[in-house]
Amino acid sequence: MDSKAKTANISSFQHEERVFPPAAEFSATAHIKSMAQYRKLYRQSVTDPETFWAGQAERELVWTKPWKKVLQWKVPSAKWFVGGKLNVSANCLDRHLASPTANQAAIIWEGEPAGAGIHGEQRTLTYRQLHREVCLFANVLKRHGLKKGDRVIIYLPMVPEAAIAMLACTRIGVVHSVVFGGFSAQSVADRIADCQARMVITSDGGFRRGTVVQLKKNVDDALALKDAHGELLAKTIEKVVILRRANNDIRVVEGRDIWWHREVEQVSADCPAEPMDSEAPLFILYTSGSTGKPKGILHTTGGYLLTAKLTTKYVFDLRPTDVYWCTADVGWVTGHSYVVYGPLANGATSFMYEGAPNHPEPDRFWRIVAQYGVTILYTAPTAIRAFMKWGEQWPKKHDLSSLRLLGTVGEPINPEAWMWYHEVIGGKRCPIVDTWWQTETGGIMITPLPGATPTKPGTATLPFFGIVPEVVDDQGRPVPRLSGGKLVIRQPWPGMLRGIWGDMDRYQATYWNEVKGSYFTGDGCRQDKDGYFWIVGRIDDVLNVAGHRIGTAEVESALVSHHEVAEAAVVGRPDELKGQALVAFVTVKTGVVADQKLREALRQQVAREIGPVAKPDDIRFAESLPKTRSGKIMRRLLKQVAAGTEIKGDTTTLEDFSVLARLGSSEE
Ligand code: WTA
To answer: What is the pLDDT of residues 563-586, one digit of tens each?
Structure first.
């Protein structure tokens, strides 16, 4: 089968009849043991959600003040556990200190430079140690005047200090916004400007595939960037905390830049957790939408934590003996909910790895699994497809028998990748949880429960407790099973976003106007005869490239900001490895030579404006872009062109769309 046919299978029903029921031994000890038990609990959770969620919130979280009302709901604004008070770091740390969990590993970490066979950098923090580190750093934040409600940017590699910084913020009610290390100085500056952050927490570098990522230098550049009126973009920043990580030569600005290790020597390890309102902002995480700049997705305290905790517990069937490894970076929502908050709230052991899966060799993950006895592995389909390509000799070199459960997230998994994961990594014995959710949803929404749900390769199966998904047509009416439509969520849930930072109109318009009264996910979907949900992928102008959400509008605006570009249109094309690849159609200004040099300059331009993650895979020069009579770019046509022909070598292809344009098609 060729590559295109393979990716086309993502949404096919070809494998629908391959059903994998949970193994009896797994179900016997699982939290949820059967479909009957799942159905019963699910029914309760959606017929009387307030009673269900009140019970869960009482059982799972420690509150310093009880709530008065479980839910206050008026589209599009939800308030959960109104009047209640709690603290996230106290729920993730302090509550475990009175139990044997205190001396168990909260975080086990490995740095990338630990090469093959060498005992390199490893660190283990017990709950007690982590608690101490968090208290110290929270006091550092306080010492520099940070207060409840202030915003802080965290721009760190995958090191324990990323979790420590996040938890320290929550301890005193400071709102964090973690920015992925693969984003550029411009992106850092835009985010600082949008949320008016007072501090950046960064490091002198981080290791990725053997090289040092220049995080501090990016921060320096970000703080010097100006907007169109010549004003500094990031002028609200007062202090930059630098973590020593890479022993990298960096610039230290007197009075502004301070060292993490020196600061913690100045403060005490005593820092009481601030009781926070259940609806107090917890974090802002920027994500791409179909228009404009990334939007700051706002999550709040009580509801988010409950969702993170409950989904981690049930979806991964977590127990104290697990070594749980979610491979996501903390810069993405998966890292927030399933590296930090979910596992720690459950008193579990969360494994963290700093670097790339193929450094120094393509067996790094499997070496880690064997060395640390990882029991649960949660990763992305794009990683699984890369492992498939590298070959099964790499996992075969290691003993993977500690694994008992596998998970995937971020994009639809094609059945071939699912089967490979199942056979080669899971040894045919580990259930696979294909989990569908979004930055906006806070936690997993559609997923198998491993002791109960029979799985099928390629579908995220059924909704989690309290979640009411539906597939609807353009009028918002439910479509019959087997037909495609838009995926919406009909009822509010505790972990849902509370808004877009500083732009409630955009919040309403993006999520609540498409299908009146329901949350619109932006995804296309259909249900099979068993009611299983098959996510087809985004139906808006958001691309999913290697599990990263990228807005076509953002990339287009980065391209046209280059002085030689006249117009740009960006579309996705199916890609065997990344799920989708980014294809840009570009027209240049009169007199400009569209050549390989310009193509490279444009890729650099995108890396500068957004970050290396958004660099187009293909840049095609065109004399004009196909437009409808009303002047709208015909994206559907561009998608077909992008998928149909391969650009090879250095040849500059000038696509001639003028003929098509003259046809005046009314498409899109
Ligand atoms: C896609 C990541 C199919 C989907 C947690 C969604 C998936 C977007 C799955 C959110 C899955 C995520 N199957 N598609 N299991 N999980 N997606 O905000 O298109 O980075 O809308 O959150 O990823 O991406 P985000």
So the answer is: 999 999 999 999 999 999 999 999
Pocket-testing residue among 295, 326, 336, 436, ligand 1, by greatest number of atoms within 8 A of Cβ: 436
Distance from the alpha carbon of residue 439 to the mean position of ligand 1, in angstroms: 8
Provide CATH code, domain 134-296.
3.40.50.980
> Which residues lie closer than 8 Å to 323 by C-beta, 6 or more apart?
108, 349, 351, 372, 373, 374, 375, 376, 402
Cα of 156 vs centre of ligand 1, distance in Å, is: 23
Q: What is the 3-state secondary structure (H, E, C) of 19-38?
A: CECCCHHHHHHCCCCCHHHH
322 touches ligand 1 (CB under 6 Å): no
Kind of pairing between the strands at 376-379 and 405-409: parallel
Q: Where in the chain is the domain with CATH 3.30.300.30?
A: 538-662
Give me 121's structure tokens: 């950098």
- For residue 10 and ligand 1, the question of a CB distance below 6 A is answered with no
CATH 3.40.50.980 region(s) of the chain? 134-296
Q: Is the CB of 412 inside a 6 Å radius of any atom of ligand 1?
A: yes
Please list, in sequence order, all residues whose beta carbon lies within 8 angstroms of the beta carbon of residue 338, skipping any fewer than 6 positions away: 308, 312, 326, 328, 378
Nearest CA to ligand 1 atom 14: 411
411 lines ligand 1 (CB under 6 A): yes
Per-residue pLDDT tens digits for 183-205: 999 999 999 999 999 999 999 99
In the 8-state DSSP scheme, what is residue 94?
G
What CATH superfamily classification does 538-662 receive? ANL, C-terminal domain (3.30.300.30)
